[in-house]
């Protein structure tokens, strides 16, 4: 009983800490906790369609390339795992927040995307940690959970661009914002996972350099968006 409690705490702690860090940066008009918890819950629920997609879509790649092939690892990371997870998170984000009256500042998009992503990461982390123990909890606290946060920061940034463009009735920029807010996290997530899946020292070094670069850039972006947070106009259909 005590071990289960400690494992649960270890699994949830990194997601909770990152959630409150990102929320604390929302200084102009902080988002309602009720909404953010709803988004986290939707993020957790998005694991279900993501897992189904991954199980189904991995089959043809395994049949064509074989599960031990580097090509299979590449396709699995980019076209299966990253597409499934980022696509499902994006769908939840879009359905719950796009028409919300609370979505009235540019930084809101980052808070929303991170809330969804950390809901996903928290539940995923619980499942892994209860299987692997405290060692897995520590490893994922340094890699997977921050990774989901970083993917969400980039998603939120361009999702905010799309929102502001939609309010200004700029259709091309709205479409571009939507496309980048989904495609960029998929590419980052895919490369992130692929480097770890290869297992060679070269790719571990590439991963570490890549991880440092995208982490620094992501949190510089958070700080800048927090300082420059500005209102969007009342929602207008494109």
Describe the fold and architecture.
This protein has 238 residues and is mostly helical. The chain has helices at residues 2-24, 33-45, 47-65, 70-97, 108-132, 134-142, 144-167, 171-198, 201-227. The longest helix is centred in the middle third of the chain and has 28 residues, at 70-97. The N and C termini lie far apart (53 Å).
Short description:
The chain is 82% helix and 0% strand. By secondary structure, the protein is mainly alpha-helical.
What structural keywords apply?
mainly alpha, 238 residues, 82% helix
Approximately how much beta-strand content do the residues carry?
under 5%
Give the helix level as a range of percent.
Answer: over 70%
Structural class: mainly alpha
Q: Which regions have little confidence, pLDDT < 50, spanning 5+ residues?
A: none
H-E string: HHHHHHHHH
The gross shape turns out to be: globular
Number of strands: 0
Q: Taking all residues together, what is the mean pLDDT?
A: 92
Termini separation comes to: 53 Å
- For the CA atoms, what is the radius of gyration? 18 Å
Total count of helical runs of at least 4 residues: 9
Q: Biggest sheet: strands, sense, closure?
A: none
């Amino acid at each position: 009983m005590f071990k289960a409690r400690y494992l649960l705490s270890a699994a949830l702690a990194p997601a909770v800490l990152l959630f409150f860090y990102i929320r604390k940066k929302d200084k102009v008009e902080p988002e309602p906790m009720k909404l953010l918890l709803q988004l986290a819950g939707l993020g957790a629920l998005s694991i279900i369609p993501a897992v189904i997609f991954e199980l189904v879509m991995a089959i043809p790649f395994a049949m064509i390339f074989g599960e031990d092939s580097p090509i299979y690892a590449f396709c699995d990371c980019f076209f299966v795992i990253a597409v499934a997870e980022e696509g499902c998170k994006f769908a939840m984000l879009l359905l719950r927040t796009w028409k919300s009256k609370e979505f009235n500042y540019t930084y809101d998009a980052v808070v929303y995307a991170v809330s969804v992503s950390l809901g996903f990461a928290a539940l995923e982390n619980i499942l892994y940690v209860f299987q692997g123990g405290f060692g897995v909890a520590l490893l994922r606290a340094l890699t997977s959970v921050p990774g989901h946060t970083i993917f969400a920061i980039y998603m939120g940034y361009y999702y905010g661009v799309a929102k502001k463009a939609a309010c200004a009735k700029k259709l091309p920029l709205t479409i571009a914002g939507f496309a980048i807010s989904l495609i960029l996290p998929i590419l980052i997530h895919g490369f992130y996972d692929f480097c770890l899946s290869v297992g060679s020292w070269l790719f571990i070094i590439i991963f570490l350099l890549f991880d440092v670069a995208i982490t620094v850039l992501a949190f510089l972006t958070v700080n800048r968006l927090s300082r420059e947070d500005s209102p969007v106009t009342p929602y207008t259909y494109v």
